Amino acid sequence: MKSSLIDVFIFASLNKVMAQKPSIPKGTRDFSPVEVQRRQYIMNTIKHHFEHYGFMPIETPSFENSDTLLGKYGEEGDRLIFKILNNGQYLSKVNDEDLQSKNEHKVSPQISKRALRYDLTVPFARYVVQHQNDITFPFKRYQIQPVWRADRPQHGRFQEFYQCDADVVGSNSLLQEVELVKLYDAVFTDLKLDGCTIKINNRKILAGIAQMIGAEDQLIDFTVALDKLDKIGGAEKVKEEMVQKASLKLLSKNLILFLVYKVTLLLNLR
Fold it and tell me: What is residue 161's three-state secondary structure?
């Protein structure tokens, strides 16, 4: 009887909703039972190998305090963070002058103190600092959870998607890097992803190049632009973005072009 009453309530609610064509927000997806089962199979395979190599799972909240996330991803990344409005009459606490000025940089901190996580790395860093007295180092953790980005939805790019991270904290041994490569290979082999190529990079190389050209204090903007090397049309587009960034305008166009050329060579040699 209880189940029947629930069914009646659900169908009555659906009839009201169906008066308008049902939809979901752009940048999100529904997953069918078959798709969920396939994803669970992949995740369970990955988890098996993570734990075989000694990585332990953690989970962090879907949202963090805004000051934990903001400023960690560069100016462009900050714009893609989904901010959560404060509870209650959030506008009543906004300074009238700031509200009338429509300055988002002044208004936003007053109406939003929390934000959906943008990735798993920054929340993990917060986790380690907050729980450092309870953690045994080196600490090997893995995490598979959804993240959210206020990016423009387009084919193959979504505002909600899963990330899968495995990290080691508290060890400088290069053996950890070797183990991670073995881990990737084991996962790809088990999933029968033949023909995969594992590429290795080192952030220290980019940090050294940034220092060489006098942009060491702009490393985030520097790396965000370079990360688009194979996404927005090659070296010329990356050069244009670097020049447009206010923090990198002091660099000459020729130097930037040379820099992108050298990095392209490094990428091709990996």
Answer: strand
Contact yes or no for 169/127 (Cβ under 8 A)? no
Tokens found for residue 136: 């045994």
Output the DSSP codes for 4-46: HHHHHHHHHHHHHHTTS-----TT-----HHHHHHHHHHHHHH
Q: 236-248 pLDDT, tens per residue? A: 676 676 666 645 5
pTM confidence score:
0.73
The CB-based long-range contact list for 32-40 (8 Å cut-off, 24+ gap) reads 39/162
- Rounded distance, CA 116 to CA 171, Å? 30
Taking only the tens place, the pLDDT of each residue in 118-172 is 999 999 999 999 999 999 999 999 999 999 999 888 887 899 999 999 999 999 8
Instruction: Find the DSSP H helices in 80-174.
Output: 96-101, 104-111, 121-130
Residue 29 CA to residue 149 CA, distance in Å, equals 14
Is the N-terminal amide bond of 25 cis, ω within 30° of 0?
A: no
